[in-house]
Specification:
By secondary structure, the protein is an alpha+beta fold. About 25% of the residues lie in helices and about 25% in strands. Helix 2 (about 60-65) packs across helix 7 (about 200-205) and helix 3 (about 115-125) packs across helix 4.
């Protein structure tokens, strides 16, 4: 995260950023540094706002329910079915929407949900982080310097990842994103497929009302329905 340090006129030294994090203070002269003076320094955050532990919106629940299918060839007689998703739409894929308008899964090509949604909002096409970041760079910024004139409100089931390959969290905490760009999530990053599946048992039972469902982490589809 990049931060900008603003110093009060009451301080008798200059304060600069220390690279790369901007979290250190370099004292540029010999004026004694006092704790009381340090309190005058405030940090202006330039990054998206990330909110974990949020409720799953009804639109996502409905989207998941619509995507659920009985997985062909997995029946155990007439009394048991297994429910997952079509290829690319199972519980292992992350679902999300932006501004409540576009709902998608991430895909097998490795593009995560967050850049796909941000790109879609600003360019009309699903893209990767290169496209999303370019779109964010092209937006107007309000006079306060920390909010966007055209922000987004994004929900993604899993929290933005910090993996070396994608580092969605790192991208969103770059200064090109602003404090009123909001990313809400329910699960932690990297949560297991069975945990996601268990959250959608009510939707499975609504779609397949003749069955009661449990999580089966030992099978690829994770939801097992037993005839009531």
């Amino acid at each position: 995260m990049e931060s900008e340090y603003v110093k009060s006129n009451a301080l008798c030294r200059s304060v600069t950023k220390r690279q790369p994090t901007g979290q250190g203070l370099n004292i540029a002269d010999n004026c004694p540094y006092k704790v009381s003076q340090a309190k005058l320094i405030r940090v202006v955050q330039r990054a998206a706002t990330l909110n974990g532990g949020q409720q799953i919106p009804q639109a996502i629940k409905t989207f998941r329910e619509d995507a659920m299918v009985e997985v062909g060839g997995t029946r155990d007689g007439d009394g048991t079915i297994y429910v997952g998703g079509a290829p690319g739409q199972g519980f292992g894929m992350n679902a999300g929407f932006i501004n409540g308008e576009v709902t998608i899964f991430n895909n097998f090509r490795g593009t995560h949900t967050e850049p796909k949604l941000i790109s879609k909002k600003y360019t009309g096409d699903y893209g990767d982080w290169t496209a999303a970041n370019a779109a964010a760079d092209g937006r107007n910024v309000n006079s306060d310097g920390v909010t966007s004139a055209d922000p987004f409100d994004l929900f993604t089931e899993r929290a933005p990842c910090s993996s070396p390959e994608h580092n969605c969290r790192g991208h969103l905490l770059h200064q090109r994103y602003k404090t009123n760009d909001v990313v809400n999530s329910h699960f932690v990053s990297g949560v297991g497929v069975e945990t996601v599946a268990s959250a959608y048992i009510p939707q499975a039972e609504h779609k397949f009302p003749a069955y009661a469902f449990i999580v089966r982490p030992d099978v690829p589809y994770h939801l097992q329905g037993t005839k009531k």
